[in-house]
Amino acid sequence: MFELSTDVSNLAELKEGDFSAYDAIYLGDFSCPEYPNNFSSHAEQLEAGLALVKSRGQKAYLRLYAVPSNHDLPWVGDLLDAALTLPFDGFEVHNLGLLRVLQDKGSKVPVHFGVFGNLYTHETAKVLKGYGVTRVYPNPELSLKEIAYIAENTPIEVLLPVHGKIPLVISETCFIMEHTEEGQDGAAVRCTHACTDDHWLTRGRADGSSADWSLKDTGRMTLSGKDLCMVEHANTLAAQDFTAFYVHNKGEAKGYAAAVGRIYRAALESAFGSQAAPDCAPWLVELNGLAREGLCNGYYFEAAGQRYFGRS
Amino acid sequence: MVRLLAPGGSLEMACTAIDEGADVVYVGPLGFSRRPYESEMSDADIKAAIDYAQARGRELLVVLNTHPSPFEMRRFLAKAETYAAFGAVGFVVTDVGALAAMRRLLPNKTMHVSIGAGISNARDTDFYRSLGADTIILPYRWGVPEIAAARAASDVALEVFLFETVQTGKICPGKCIMSSYLRFREWLPMEDQTCFHGSANRGAKECYRVCQATWQFGTVEAAPIQLTLRRDARLMLEQLPRMVAEGVTCFKLSGRERPVPMIRDLVRFYRKAIDRVLAGADNLDDYAEELAELRARWVREKRKRVDTLMDRASGYAS
């Protein structure tokens, strides 16, 4: 009927968290290979992670590092060699060069094209099909109308993010590390995994009143300050024939994925069961309570990403 | 052959760059080249710039480096056909699908892959070459070793910006939608656009350069520090001989939004420097004083531009 997925960075988080609301798990943090025991950079963690996900009756997709440099290509290649011996249901690839690497390796594993791959058009989807891409995560700047058009005009499935922070920026270097005391002194910078604490970028109004713009930063990736929320629109999404939905979990506190997943499982089951739209108010209250900077609709309704459609 | 690519943010700037010795000038059509309308050109001006370049034995590239909406792909490709018929030698493109479609449609035109494609390794260059790209502009972070790796990965021509490499900060062309998350505006009538776009990446105006504004940064518990998300890149010079030796064939000067006199002086300077390298020089130290003065002017103009953009963004933020 539909698939609801989320992401988990490492084995400890996978063991400790409740991901029972999800049909599939994207394993790994595609933004930073230095994240502790990241599935995306620790081949020795893959077998255990995959086994745990499968034992829970879920699909497992492996996320690959989104912005590999030339120096990264050898270890990413080694990780892929290990992953290709395991029954992953897909690899999430953001980098076009890695599509070439997978092709060289003769991989037949379905490829999911990640958010930083910059899928904006159906013409791009057609090119990617030739590289074994079966699912695409469209660039967040696209509207629902545009995403629906791409879905209708290509033979590739579309993954639709429905909740969580929106990935806005990815960089090859760690912004948090660069601004530790050690980094400011110009000394050799060593990763102390400071990204496990919440970091925020804020910009105040010119008149000195409270911050107007707010973004979350995880080091190499900057995320929206607000949480994308589409729970009010579950029936619309089901009616548009979208079937793959995603909750962004990277950078969130323990318990976030469980709470959000439970709500969206209920909302989507209702929508796909052709039931009347349920009362979303209690869900919105709970989801708003989980979002430090409030909720938004991203770009789905043709507005700037941080707006919530229809509300001031 | 090593060529100097210069910006044409207006017909006047394009003609000036050609007069000062640019081999190729690049211009952007209104609504399709990720710049505010004052740094893009009408079709009539693009035709005039092509004619001016051709009459002097030079070439013109048209920048079509937006990610078009799926709904405007036909119009996007029709634009490319128009400029090809005008005599444009090629195009600067970002979108993978657009590049593939343009390659099929215009097999005799050169295709440059824009910095907005977000290349991060040599296999990326290989991917674009397989789609039919002729030239790839390399990332700001890349130095000589990465250039050599790209050279080994494929026979695609390599183009570099005339900026020194930068290794810190959020340097993410093609991997950033911060500006449109925070704010964007509707089209102006003169831009002749109807599709929803929302960001400079897609042709809407404009990127507010929020990465160059002052932010507070830190954890909830600690006092925030003030910073910008990236530092300014400096104009490059001493690296030219080594890059030429490694096979770079195009040096690109950015600045379509800069004043014409600034571009005039920069083209004149780099024409002189590149010619000297091609004559065999491996040391350009005696240009240091001139470079320092140009660098200072560049930073002053850039700061003015960022302030203007942030003022616009603040105006929309209320």
Key features?
heterodimer; A: 312 residues; eight-stranded parallel β-barrel; 11 helices; globular; B: alpha/beta; TIM Barrel; two-stranded antiparallel sheet
Kindly report the average pLDDT value of chain A: 93
CATH topology of chain B: the name is: TIM Barrel
- Regions with little confidence, pLDDT below 50 for 5+ residues of chain B: none
Task: Characterize the biggest β-sheet of chain B.
Answer: 8 strands, parallel, barrel
- Radius of gyration of chain B, whole Å: 19 Å
- Structural category of chain B is alpha/beta
Taking all Cα atoms into account, the compactness measure Rg of chain A is 19 Å
* Helix content estimate of chain A: 25-40%
CATH class value of chain A: Alpha Beta
- Amount of beta strand of chain A: 15-25%
Count of spatially separate domains of chain B: 1
Q: Averaged pLDDT of chain B, please?
A: 90
The number of domains of chain A is: 1
CATH architecture of chain A, by name, is Alpha-Beta Barrel
- Major β-sheet strand ordering of chain A: 1-2-3-4-5-6-7-11
CATH topology of chain A: TIM Barrel
Question: What is the count of β-strands of chain A?
Answer: 12
Encode the helix/strand succession of chain A as letters: EHEHEHEHEHEHEHHEEEHEHHE
CATH architecture heading of chain B: Alpha-Beta Barrel
CATH superfamily grouping of chain B = Aldolase class I
Number of helices of chain A: 11
SSE arrangement:
The complex is a heterodimer of chains A (312) and B (318).
Chain A lengths: L2 E6 L2 H6 L7 E4 L18 H10 L3 E5 L9 H11 L6 E4 L2 H9 L6 E3 L8 H8 L3 E4 L7 H10 L3 E14 L4 H4 L2 H4 L14 E6 L6 E7 L3 E9 L4 H6 L4 E4 L8 H17 L8 H10 L4 E2 L16
Parallel strand pairs in A: 1-2, 1-11, 2-3, 3-4, 4-5, 5-6, 6-7, 7-11, 10-12
Antiparallel strand pairs in A: 7-10, 8-9, 9-10
Chain B lengths: L2 E5 L3 H9 L4 E4 L15 H13 L3 E6 L8 H14 L3 E4 L2 H10 L4 E4 L8 H9 L4 E3 L6 H10 L3 E5 L16 H5 L32 E5 L5 E3 L12 H6 L2 E5 L7 H19 L9 H30 L1
Helix pairs in contact in B: 1-2, 1-9, 3-4, 5-6, 9-10
